[in-house]
Design goal:
By secondary structure, the protein is an all-alpha fold. Helices cover about 65% and strands about 0% of the residues. The longest helix has 26 residues, at about 10-35.
Length: about 160
């Protein structure tokens, strides 16, 4: 009976069509909220070597917008060794905190350009230094603490 009433009125048919589209969009958003966060995913997979799955220092340097040599020096690593094997297993413990910082920033800002702007902006909790300066001075833990607290809603 309801369908017959709608069929007789073209203006209602149009409104019903629009409501169905809106309903589908809301269902997709709800599905993302309920199930999207529970799915396993790799953040910033472009920073990994596809052959072995490890973080690639060269790709990390490009994302940060710094030369590989500067990244190597900042992490107190041998540039020649990093250049030869940028995804070496021995580098991973030094690269992981930096990548985690980028993952959190990616969640906040989405675009790599905006991430780099934040990284290059002086921060009062870093004594006026930029997060990138701290990361390249082999202190990514200080930046990571600020970011994890911000992600958790904890004031720094």
């Amino acid at each position: 009976m309801m369908t017959a009433a709608i069929a007789a009125r073209p203006d209602l048919q149009e409104q019903v069509g629009e409501l169905k589209i809106q309903l589908l969009a809301v269902q997709e958003q709800l599905d993302t909220l309920l199930h999207g966060h529970g799915r396993l995913q790799v953040m910033l997979p472009e920073l990994h070597d596809p052959a072995n799955g490890r973080i690639d220092a060269g790709k990390l340097a490009v994302y940060l917008g710094v030369p590989l040599k500067r990244l190597a020096e900042g992490l107190a690593l041998n540039y020649k060794a990093i250049h030869r094997n940028p995804a070496a297993e021995g580098l991973q413990s030094r690269l992981q905190p930096m990548k985690r910082c980028l993952e959190i920033l990616h969640e906040f800002f989405g675009k790599p350009e905006t991430v780099r702007v934040w990284l290059n902006t002086p921060h009062p909790d870093l004594d006026g230094r930029t997060a990138l300066e701290m990361m390249l001075a082999n202190h990514p833990a200080a930046v990571l603490r600020i970011l994890e607290n911000a992600a958790a809603g904890v004031p720094v």
